[in-house]
Design brief:
This protein is of the alpha+beta class and 400 residues long. The protein has 2 domains: 246 residues, FAD/NAD(P)-binding domain (3-Layer(bba) Sandwich); 142 residues, Translation factors (Elongation Factor Tu (Ef-tu), domain 3), CATH 2.40.30. Helices cover 29% and strands 24% of the residues. The protein has 12 helices and 21 strands. The longest helix is centred in the C-terminal third of the chain and has 16 residues. It binds flavin-adenine dinucleotide. The site of flavin-adenine dinucleotide has 39 residues, from helix 1, helix 2 and helix 12. Flavin-adenine dinucleotide (FAD) binds next to helix 1, helix 2 and helix 12. Keywords: FAD, Flavoprotein. Its cofactor is FAD. InterPro entries: BaiN-like, BaiN-like_dom_sf, FAD/NAD-bd_sf, RsdA/BaiN/AoA(So)-like_dom, RsdA/BaiN/AoA(So)_Rossmann.
């Protein structure tokens, strides 16, 4: 049986980074992954350019950008390995990048640069990588040594790091391995569900909007009530099955099935005021007036819903205009569901942080660590999930 100091399971963002850090600290590290391709999720991330971190992370207030039963858990790791640290690493490897809006940093060329960097860091640490190599069984002996039956023979190590990510995008190798290992060793888990995912709608209520697929516009979207209320000012995209775009992906991580979302489709204008003004001076159809403030396809679809709205604005009653303004600025609708793990960028839930150390990511099962998305910490869209992967991997890799 081959012996290592550490076996890292999962050669994705967190696993490769952790392996490189631990290897460069002198540990004999094996990283293995059942997929034939390395870090495939990193490769497809950020539209192929990997939004690898976000400059706006507020490490003192992680609940602002991270979701989970206890977002405070990520504070320690995030404050010890910051976006500036990862940017410095990118610069050391001469990888060009740029900032898009809201602090989001992307590779200039492709996510392949990021993967090459992670692999170079592993090489610098003398890390052994085996792919494709699945794990059939994992046991802990009475002496606290882990024995793994893998597709390439048996290996043993005193420390095992689970970095197998979430359930999103099974087509590229996502599995529930981490959840199963946690349960095997008696650790608690928070039920998983898709996050950063398009929402779906069906039935008669959706029929007026079914023809709007492809249409995008800036909106304010919100869900929840009172202290649970959360809102985003982002772009909305109509799809064939419902709604997507950054606004909907963000809200999906907070949306509770069966509850409504509310959308202001014209957040930049005071609709009651501009419609009342139009009534005084315009001879145009209401739809044509409305098209100054929302895309014309949307204006047509909305005004087609009531006979009172299908006439010149000057002939519309004050009540009809007020109703239209109210409904456009507070469009309330209940999603039927989500596009599921096939389309979700992340998985909410995961290994319960109550059973993990926030300093080292070691679980209550000594020698067993969990890092990255498999933990019940999920970031907003915009580079937050990768920063959690790097920070949790670094906290773990330096403590092993
Ligand atoms: C389409 C898309 C775009 C995204 N874009 C961004 C972005 O721009 N910015 C951002 O911050 N986040 C983005 N994310 C989220 C981000 O990719 C993940 O949060 C991040 O990759 C998590 O890192 P991880 O190492 O925990 O898991 P992963 O990177 O998913 O790695 C897990 C690894 O474990 C392996 N594995 C799984 N099961 C097993 C098993 N049973 N045995 C062995 N190996 C196994 C998998 O093959 C995989 O290689 C995106 C996600 C998707 C799906």
């Amino acid at each position: 049986m081959q012996s290592f100091d550490v076996v890292v399971i999962g050669a994705g963002a967190a696993g490769l980074f952790c392996a490189g850090v631990a290897g460069q600290r002198g540990l004999k590290v094996l990283v293995l992954d059942h997929s034939p391709k390395v870090a495939e999720k990193v490769r497809i991330s950020g539209g192929g350019r990997a939004n690898f971190t976000n400059r706006d992370i507020d490490v003192r207030q992680p609940h602002k950008h991270f979701v989970g039963q206890n977002p405070q858990f990520c504070r320690s790791a995030l404050s010890r390995y910051t976006p500036a640290d990862f940017i410095a690493l990118m610069e050391k490897h001469h990888i060009p990048f740029h900032e898009k809006h809201k602090g989001q940093l992307f590779c200039d060329r492709s996510a392949g640069d990021l993967i090459d960097m992670l692999l170079t860091e592993c090489e610098a640490g003398g890390v052994t990588r085996r792919q494709p190599c699945g794990v059939k069984d994992i046991r802990c002996t009475a002496e606290g040594v882990y024995e793994l039956d893998t597709d390439q023979g048996q290996v043993q190590a005193r420390k095992v790091v689970i970095a197998t990510g979430g359930l999103s995008i099974p087509a590229i190798g996502a599995t529930d391995f981490g959840f199963r290992v946690a349960k095997q060793f008696g650790l608690r888990t928070v039920d998983p569900r898709p996050g950063l995912v398009p929402l779906t709608f069906d039935g008669a209520g959706w029929a007026p909007y079914a023809g709007l697929a492809g249409l995008a516009l800036p909106v304010i979207i919100e869900t929840g009530l009172k202290k649970d209320r959360i809102s985003f000012h982002e772009d909305l995209l109509f799809t064939h099955r419902g709604l997507s775009g950054p606004a909907v992906l963000q809200i999906s991580s907070y949306w509770q099935p069966g509850t409504p979302i509310r959308i202001n489709l014209a957040p930049e204008v005071d609709l009651p005021a501009v419609l009342a003004d139009a009534k005084q001076r315009s001879r145009k159809l209401l739809a044509n007036e409305l098209a100054q403030w929302v895309p014309s396809r949307l204006a047509d679809a909305w005004t087609a819903q009531e006979p009172d709205w299908q006439r010149p604005v000057a002939e519309c009653s004050d009540k009809a205009l007020a109703r239209l303004a109210e409904r456009l600025s507070r469009w309330e609708l209940v999603p039927t569901g989500t596009e599921g793990y096939k389309k979700a960028e992340v998985t909410l839930g995961g290994v319960d942080t109550r059973d993990l150390s926030q300093q080292t990511m070691e679980s209550k099962q000594p020698g067993l660590y969990f890092i990255g998305e498999v933990v019940d910490i999920t970031g907003w869209l915009g580079g937050y999930n990768f920063q959690w992967a790097w920070a949790s991997a670094h906290a773990c890799g330096t403590s092993l």
